[in-house]
Design a protein that fits this description.
single chain; globular; alpha+beta; four-stranded antiparallel β-sheet
């Protein structure tokens, strides 16, 4: 999305990466000299790991060549057809104030996330709960697919005002978010069009979607046709009977 500042590639030469971590929808790769390589995949980006040097395709924007334990090399390629992703390299000490990370909410699979957190950040909000779930300042890392699935599992309409999510509804929603995300991770994510894992495998959670992408099909619980609406430019799928 933005040009990579000059000379960033030379700063990575000879460096060792520690284990990658994730913050929200960002991949963070710390180096042994106190830097962090940040990668965001955008709407349709993917990272592929190759055992032999690949012929770069049209939308391959960056390739990292790394030493492998067997004495050979591995090639990590960032492919991004729509060019919505981005890459940055910055000092690890600046992570807390980095413009893309500083205002993010807690991780939904972390200890700071709970029903109490949902009640606190949703309090008095008049916007729909679906919009609130996608607000990275409130909760980090929830995307459109998993917001729809979590709301269905919790029995909450995407139209419901966020400020009305209190007590039992907040508890159900918090549990649903964690359950849906853990299930999706176990299945390698959701491959609708573009998503692939680093080894090229697709994500099989697409086979377990209950509402997303199922407009007009019967609800898996009650048989009522699934409806779809557009909220802030994103499609919301829901059951008008099971979700209130």
């Amino acid at each position: 999305r933005w040009p990579l500042p000059g000379a960033r590639d030379s700063q990575l030469l000879g460096r060792h990466f520690a284990a990658p971590i994730r913050r929200g929808k960002y991949v963070l790769m710390p180096t042994d000299d106190g830097q962090v390589l940040l990668i965001h995949l955008g709407m349709s980006g993917s990272m592929r790991i190759h055992e032999t040097k690949p012929d770069l395709a049209r939308h391959d924007h960056i390739m990292l060549t790394v030493d492998a334990p067997d004495g050979g090399h591995r090639y990590i390629v960032l492919n991004d057809p729509r060019r919505f992703g981005w890459v940055d390299l910055f000092a690890e000490d600046d992570m807390a104030k980095h413009k893309l990370l500083r205002d993010m909410g807690p991780e939904p699979l972390g200890n700071a996330f709970s029903a109490a957190h949902i009640r606190a950040v949703f309090a008095n909000r008049k916007s729909p709960v679906k919009n609130a779930l996608l607000d990275q300042r409130l909760i980090a890392g929830i995307g459109n697919i998993y917001a729809c699935e979590a709301l269905f599992k919790a029995g909450i309409s995407p139209r419901r005002r966020a400020g009305s999510i209190t007590a039992g509804r907040a508890e159900k929603l918090a549990n649903a978010i964690v359950t849906v995300l853990r299930a999706a991770i176990a299945e390698g994510g959701t491959s609708l069009r573009d998503h692939v894992q680093p080894g090229g495998e697709i994500g099989y959670f697409v086979q377990k979607l209950t509402v997303y992408g199922r407009a007009g099909l019967p609800c898996v619980t009650c048989g009522t046709p699934i409806r779809t609406i557009v909220q802030s430019g994103r499609s919301s799928f829901y059951c008008p009977v099971c979700q209130r």
